[in-house]
Design brief:
binds adenosine-5'-triphosphate; Rossmann fold; 25 strands; BirA Bifunctional Protein, domain 2; five-stranded mixed beta sheet; 559 residues; alpha+beta; seven-stranded mixed beta sheet
């Protein structure tokens, strides 16, 4: 991964945001290569899913023919959108702060950041008082509970905080035989980072972490001049809600009928507690989302269709099947309205061997979102937004009140559509394609000696530069001919002209950028108007007529 990160900086794929001021955590800029790569990925997604979608035939695996279209909605929306979507009340992570260095961590990440030995060392350092447990051989669980509750209320400075005693006692009971537990078993339970009631040590400094608390991930801001609660607004944490709230507009303004997918690409913002792993977890990122509206009776079939289609898409663009998994969520992981969710996950090199990170989630969302925007949710415990108070200052707790159902003009049936949501991250996708493309192999240098070369094997559709044009030498009219080729190609693709240095070195530079084809004008070109095309992966060089070069590159690009 270190080599990939270094290459990204060196070749202008990715830079830390505001780097000259020391950077800002969780924000990344795309350089000249990165912007093309990411744009190509988004274009490939839009072309394959929306623009070139065949809406006349039944595609393999699909229950029937369907339409696709797109929208582009705003980042800041009416705050009630986030109330009805559930983000205002529920979109939070549990986080823990260190009492000593004040760093923040996502509670579910802490155990993974600690090695077992760090945790045991910390246990020994901080839990002096627990040594008294060692004196006892057998505990009554009820007695243990009383003892822990007393400790939890009255923790001496420097000792570990105690969290969630009832949860821990439940775990003890499942181990305890006949209501009592041995000292050995108890110490094992206390010593397990995942199940212990004791505060975990800080992964950064070894200090003690405070109890987990809720932390809403939405960035907030104010609209207008007054920074008052009435003007509170949020940066969207997903693009999906812009589609739901426009569902009726799209249906009313177009001649589409269901099944219909509405797509959107755009920025989303999440105030992630621990942004990390390069761009994988950023605070500002781009999503490519489809909300696919269909009849409830067909939604399970559509869910399977989209899950398999999206999995295949990554492979068609070059991700190896060995590094990709489709992980169906367990029933316990599913939201109450969902009959299925699957994640497409990639074996990112920064993860431990055998672990995968999410690239895209495909969720069956039932009619949850449209229904919420129609009716709202009556949740007495939820915090009201100021804008939701009625004239008497009472919470209104309601949705838009608009009818977001659909009437089938042929059957005349009226229903609230079900939704399948394939939700992909453009930045995580770009990072996965960068990781997948990175190769080191042996290739001859300009003197014929074998050297290690770094080559980014991007699919030609994704490659930031499609072709590079070189005059072999900077004289004899070669640059003039090379420029003619360069300008002709440039009308169609991003191409690069380079006349400086040894040609072998120019090839290497293009290999590192992932340019699939290098075109060289040499002495023979002057005689017969043919040029060489060098293939990045096979290193094969063939001569082709200079005058048909645009068609030749076009043919190769189409595969
Ligand atoms: P995670 O569990 O990794 O936080 P999530 O399940 O919350 O992700 P979704 O809400 O399903 O993610 O978002 C859809 C997609 O958006 C993800 O599959 C991912 O590609 C992308 N995404 C989500 N959060 C981030 C982030 N902080 N940085 C970059 N991409 C993200």
């Amino acid at each position: 991964m270190d080599k990939i990160v270094a290459l990204c900086k060196r070749r202008g794929f990715l830079f830390q945001s505001s780097e000259i001021y020391g950077g800002i955590n969780g924000f990344w800029d795309y350089g000249p290569m990165g912007v093309e790569l990411k744009r190509n990925l988004k274009n490939a997604w839009w072309e394959d899913m929306i623009q070139a979608h065949n809406d006349l035939d039944v595609l393999p695996g699909a229950p029937e023919a369907y339409s696709m279209t797109g929208i582009d909605s705003t980042i800041i929306m009416h705050p009630q959108v986030w109330k009805c979507s559930g983000h205002y009340d529920l979109f939070h992570d549990m986080m823990q702060s260190c009492q000593h260095c004040k760093k923040l961590f996502r509670a579910d990440h802490v155990a993974g950041l600690l090695t077992e030995s760090e945790w045991v060392a910390s246990l020994k350092k901080h839990v002096v008082e627990f040594s008294e447990l060692k004196e006892m051989v057998q505990f009554e669980v009820a007695e243990l509970q009383r003892w822990l509750e007393k400790k939890a209320k009255n923790v001496a400075p420097g000792l570990m905080a105690i969290h969630d005693v009832p949860g821990f006692i439940d775990r003890v009971r499942t181990t305890a035989a006949g209501g009592s537990v041995t000292a050995g078993d108890l110490l094992k339970l206390l010593g397990s980072p995942l199940g212990s009631p004791l505060a975990l040590p800080c992964p950064a400094c070894g200090g003690l972490l405070n109890a987990p608390r809720e932390f809403n991930l939405m960035f907030s801001t104010y609209t207008g001049a007054l920074q008052s609660e009435e003007n509170l607004a949020f940066l969207r944490p997903e693009t999906a809600q812009g589609i739901f709230v426009n569902f009726k507009n799209v249906m009313d303004s177009s001649r589409f009928s269901l099944p219909l997918g509405i797509a959107q690409i755009g920025k989303s913002f999440r105030n992630e507690i621990t942004p990390r792993n390069f761009t994988f977890r950023s605070r500002e990122f781009e999503q490519m989302e489809i909300e696919f509206f269909c009849h409830p009776a067909q939604s399970s079939e559509w869910y399977r269709y989209w899950r398999d289609r999206r999995m295949q898409w990554y492979q068609d663009l070059g991700i190896s099947k060995d590094r990709l998994i489709l992980r169906e969520h367990e029933e316990s992981e599913l939201a109450h309205y969902s009959v299925g969710t699957a994640d497409i996950e990639y074996a990112f090199p920064f993860l431990p061997k055998g672990e995968f990170g999410e690239l895209e989630g495909i969720a069956h969302r039932g009619d949850f979102d449209l229904r919420s925007h129609m009716e709202g949710k009556l949740d007495e415990k939820a915090r009201p937004l100021k804008v939701q108070l009625n004239e008497n200052g009472q919470p209104k707790y309601r949705g838009s009140g608009k009818d977001l159902s659909y009437r089938d003009t042929i059957t005349n049936e009226k229903y609230i559509p079900h939704v399948i949501e394939p939700s992909a991250g453009a930045d995580r996708g770009t990072l996965a394609f960068i990781c997948e493309a990175y190769h080191e192999d042996q290739a001859p240098d300009e003197n014929g000696a074998m050297q290690t070369r770094v080559v980014m094997k991007f699919h030609p559709r994704l490659a930031p530069i499609k072709a590079a044009v070189f005059p072999l030498v900077k004289k004899d009219g070669m640059p003039e001919l090379a420029k003619v080729i360069y300008l002709a190609l440039k009308k169609n693709w991003v191409v690069f002209y380079d006349e400086k240095g040894a040609v072998g070195r120019r090839y290497r530079r293009q290999d590192e950028a992932g340019t699939p084809y290098c075109i060289t004008v040499d002495g023979q070109t002057l005689q017969d108007r043919t040029v060489t095309i060098r293939d990045r992966d096979s290193l094969e060089q063939v001569r082709v007529p200079m005058d048909g070069i645009v068609e030749e590159i076009g043919r190769r690009m189409r595969g």
